[in-house]
Amino acid sequence: MNLPNSLTLTRICLVPLLVVVLLTKFEGRQILGIPTEFVGAGIFALASLTDWADGYLARRRKQITPLGQVIDPLADKLLTSAALISLVQMGLAPAWMVAVIIGREFAVTGLRSLTFARGVAIPASPLGKIKMIAQVVAILALILSSARNAVDLLWWIGQAALWVVVVAALVSAADYFRRFSLFSRHESQTASARRDGLVSHDSTVSRDNRVA
Length: 212
What we know:
CATH superfamily: CDP-alcohol phosphotransferase transmembrane (TM) domain
Number of domains: 1
Order of helices and strands: HEEHHHHH
Strand content: under 5%
Structural class: mainly alpha
Shape: globular
Radius of gyration: 24 Å
CATH topology: Four Helix Bundle (Hemerythrin (Met), subunit A)
Number of strands: 2
Distance between the termini: 65 Å
Largest sheet: 2 strands, antiparallel
Helix content: over 70%
Number of helices: 6
């Protein structure tokens, strides 16, 4: 297994560790003398860093593999879903916003899988980068805002970034559905034209046979 795929698998392994750290009530809210919020934020930051690193290394080393193309987006969704659901449980994020974000991820993944199965890849939306950055900022800020003596500014930053994520998720989802609709319409028209051409060809052959 190459290095990029190893980093992706490391990110998947960090997901349950993140959930345990965020949701387990440790004595004194510390792990080895470190506040659990700092440990949780560190785990999430490390996992997010591997998300950038595995893609960068795969492109630079030309080690893009079918396995990597499957597990990389899966790892991303597992990480962000686990972090956001944990924030809901901690009372730091509204459940409806998290439901919108996660629902969008599964809907878009389904659309892209459908088109990919037909031999067409829908390019990633430019808003995807904005959503990803805002997502990381929101999760880190909200985790740290739950620490003792944390400044209120962190909570406000987290909430503002979460709204950016929701808006970007909805707009990019609408863009994906629009492009999927255009693809489906084009595919339908192409299939119809092929059928019409086949019928026309059969008719011509039939006439030629009768004349002969």
